[in-house]
Amino acid sequence: MHAFLPFLLAQAATPEDIVREAARLQRNYEFLSYGLIVAWLVLVVYVLMMVSRERRLKREIASLKAMMEERPKK
Amino acid sequence: MRDKILYILGAAAVLLIARNIYVISGLPGEEAQGAIFKIIFFHVPLAITALTSATVAFVASVLFLVTKDFKYDALAVSVTEVGLAFLAGNLITGSIWARIIWGVWWAWDVRLTSALVCWILYASYLMIRHAVEEPTQRAKLAAVVSIFAFIDVPIVYLSIRLFRTQHPGPVFFSSEGSFPHDWSMIMMWNLFAMLMLGTVMTMIRLRQEEAQREIDSLRRLAHAF
Description:
The complex is a heterodimer. Chain A is an all-alpha fold. Chain A has helices at residues 5-12, 15-25, 29-70. Chain B has helices spanning 2-25, 40-67, 70-101, 110-131, 135-150, 152-162, 181-224. In chain B, helix 1 packs antiparallel against helix 7, helix 2 (40-67) runs parallel beside helix 7 and helix 4 (110-131) runs antiparallel to helix 5.
């Protein structure tokens, strides 16, 4: 009897039931999207901070090296 | 060459995460929670990556105090900063899940509170580094703070095992969990991708720390003239 139960239930379900069940299982999708967007945004902001820091460091090294090269000439 | 390898690894990690998001979006929702349940596939790897970073920072800090080699101090600060970003992601995803399932953004239970304390401790570590000018003194003090902050990491990990918390019990690496095997595999892939991303970010940050040391020595040299 148990083996036939899913088959019998599948026979009883209408397409509307299936659509409703799928929608029920996919509820809160909006909040899931918010969660993932915010989590990735934190990491993206951190990466952008790293990129700007890298540029600043390169500029600073270049200017210090240029300064050091100029000094012995005086 | 080292840069190229780092960028290739970073791109591979991002592609792997994109592939995982595609796979996860195709999974059915959980019976009681709906789609918001899928946040676990990101929430847990973010936490594991953050706690792994804290462990690496602890080891690097101990090694710095033993050897006085500044490369360990650079590793400690780099990995702490990256871990802090991952822990922030973990706290935010957890809070959004809690808003739907518990009806509140935050609950002061042992797991949540210890994780927040962990974030504050490591943020303090970075603030202390900014406050001290002298490099040797800064590195020593930071190493001690990092070792002290690490005390919270086992508390965060064990809180859901030792205490009755509002936070769900362990589902991975535990006999109590009932996560389907194929879902566990997706989680493991996501964990692998995030650990890879964390490693790449740490290596890039480490390179910046080396550049900062070069600037410090160039400045000292400039003052010596």
